[in-house]
Design brief:
single chain; four-stranded antiparallel β-sheet; 22% strand
């Protein structure tokens, strides 16, 4: 768990976010979703460290694929799927998965809906390359 810069908010190993206050806790795949849950339950949402909070927001933006440590980065030829903490990348999500597993790294879905959208996006991109 890493401190996020927000009051009672920590980033978990699977890149999700957790708010802990006494006996109450909430977990969400994005900071935006977590903030909604926290406020909906009448709990306090506040920034304790501006710089760290800004870095957490940036890290959260990079985790929009639904897969642990996987993010999409613009490149000259479109975009690349990248695995955080390594040099692994590919234009295909499926190829990246094979590379990650071959290296003995963890391939984990952190958000089923986001993962399905990422997979669909990758499939559309691949089909466009094949049929254009």
């Amino acid at each position: 768990m890493k401190f996020s810069g927000f009051l009672n908010v920590y980033q978990l190993d699977d890149m999700s976010w957790k708010y802990v206050f006494g006996e109450k806790s909430h977990t969400a795949s994005t900071l935006k979703d977590l903030e909604f849950l926290v406020r909906m339950h009448g709990l306090k949402w506040a920034v304790l460290d501006e710089d760290l909070a800004r870095k957490s927001i940036e890290a959260d933006k990079l985790n929009q694929t639904g897969y642990l440590n996987v993010y999409i980065r613009p490149s000259i030829n479109g975009s690349l799927w990248c695995y955080r903490g390594s040099d692994l990348s590919s234009t295909s999500l499926e190829v990246l998965k094979k590379k990650v597993l071959k290296e003995g790294l963890v391939w984990k879905v952190t958000d089923e809906d986001l993962a399905n959208r990422s997979f669909s996006l990758d499939l559309k991109k691949y089909n466009k390359l094949l049929f254009d």
